Amino acid sequence: MSSHIGNVLKQALATFANKGTQKHEAFQKNLEVLISLLDKTTAEHVNFPMRYMNPQLWERPEKAPVSCIEIFEDTHVTMGIFILKPNGKLPLHNHPKMHGLIKVLAGKVEIISYSINTEKTKEIDQKSLIDEMPLNPKPRKHNIVTAELNEVTIATSDSLPCLLDPNFKNIHEIHSLDGPAAFLDVLAPPYDFPISEFEIRKCSYYHKLSQVTTNIFRLQEVKSPSWYWTDSCPYTGPELFDIELH
Ligand SMILES: [Fe+2]
Question: Is the peptide bond before 194 cis (omega within 30 degrees of 0)?
């Protein structure tokens, strides 16, 4: 028997598993269907443990500031739930060459996103390359990225899913507002799988190094912040092992 979350997963696989062989229009159409299914997804559909919405649970001294519920992962798609403590956050991080969709299940979040490789960032990188060339012919540091700040998004379970792609809103931080918050996260392809023969898709963390001009910042890669760690909670929603994979 199919469940709503099973249908979300099937659609995510239909969208992303064959991305390389789909025409752009077919991919966009699949993505739209996925967004509309995610839009209808609620905490009940994944049997989200509502005890996490009790602020007292987060006051235990040994409690991680973020809990994760892993729902599914293969080489194409990963799906899970992130739960943030009251006034908590996911540190600024990237999603290298990935798509991501966020649907809030409980509470309220603020998403601060940056886009990369925009017209403005490319123009600034081009200009600084020329400006620096005579004095400093060394190549640019790999761990600094020029990024354009997008409008801040506030989202609750009533909000549309939030989308990021390999350039648009690819770097973000997510805060919980007014108490704990939980969101469903669909990522494609998953972290830690190869991008190429020589490169693994790793999650990098950043801090804001400097502002270049209005809404344009240089972000510097940093180690995972010491205040950030996660614990995991088992998934207790509808079983998904019988999903007919592509
Ligand atoms: Fe993220």
Answer: no
